[in-house]
Amino acid sequence: MRSRLIAARAAMSPVERATAANALTASALTFVHGIGARTVACYVSLGSEPGTRALLDALRAEGTEVLLPVLLADNDLDWARYDGAELLAPARLGLLEPTGPRLGADAVCGADLVLLPGLAVDPTSGLRLGRGGGSYDRVLARLDAAAAPALLATLLFDSELVPDLPAEPHDRRVDAVLTPARTLTFPRDA
After folding, report:
1. What is the number of domains present in the chain?
2. Tell me, what CATH number does 108's domain have?
3. What whole-number distance in Å separates Cα of residue 24 and Cα of residue 132?
4. Environment class of 65 (CB within 10 Å of its CB; exposed 0-12, middle 13-18, buried 19+)
5. In this structure, how many other beta carbons lie within 10 angstroms of the beta carbon of residue 11?
6. What gap in Å lies between CA 122 and CA 140, rounded to an integer?
7. Among 14, 27, 96, 130, which one is least packed by beta carbons within 10 Å?
8. DSSP output for 107-127
9. In a domain, 190, yes or no
């Protein structure tokens, strides 16, 4: 399933991806404003992922603190503040990472909202399918242990809402999925 979803993303034209990125930025900003998030953990999109670069700049321009991941040697994630595209540097696996001071792996626990990459979300349950690398599984475990866990949302293309998404025991639900055309929210388990 992951291969099929990645291939569908790659088949999108640059114009389709740019149009989707603009609409997704608007959806994400509306969501951020609606929940009153002051600190947002996000990521720099790469390749055919739903675009986040305009969103990062818009959040920063509004005064929202934006945290970006820094991939560690063991594939865990450290975090650093986003201080503009000019302060991003190429890193391992083709990623772009902030060059500023590292804040530690637990810095994500201070975010109000964590925007997660993913490949699909079940539109009924909120179950998220990640890329399978495990980096965000560690982040999610940290957030589970936090006193006031952040809201979790995944940024996707509209076609990546997949009913009856197969799940493994470690796969997690999110609080929301944001696409260019829709925002779906899911109640947290009691």
Report:
1. 1
2. 3.40.50.10420
3. 23
4. middle
5. 9
6. 18
7. 14
8. GGGG-SEEEE--SEE-TTT-B
9. no
User: Using one digit for the tens of pLDDT, what is the confidence trace for 32-59?
Assistant: 999 999 999 999 998 899 999 999 999 9
1-19, pLDDT tens digit by residue? 888 999 999 999 999 999 9
Count, in order, helices (H) and strands (E) of the chain. Answer: 4, 11
Residue 153 lies in a domain: yes
Is residue 160, in this structure, part of any structural domain at all? yes
CB 67 within 8 A of CB 44: no
Question: How many angstroms separate the CA atoms of 24 and 36, rounded?
Answer: 18
Of 169, 158, 114, 103, the closest CA to residue 136 belongs to 114
Instruction: Give the rounded distance of the alpha carbon of 115 from its chain centre.
Output: 3
Residue 31 lies in a domain: yes
Q: Which residues 6+ apart lie within 8 Å of 99 measured at CB?
A: 80, 87, 88, 89
Nearest CA-CA partner of 78 in 139, 23, 30, 31: 139
Token reading at 64: 């929202």
Residue type, 146: A
**Could you give the angle at which helices 53-61 and 14-35 cross, rounded to 10 degrees?**
30
Answer yes or no: are the C-beta atoms of 161 and 120 closer than 8 Å: yes
Written as six digits, the tokens of 27 are: 């959806």
**C-alpha span between 50 and 24 (Å, rounded):** 8
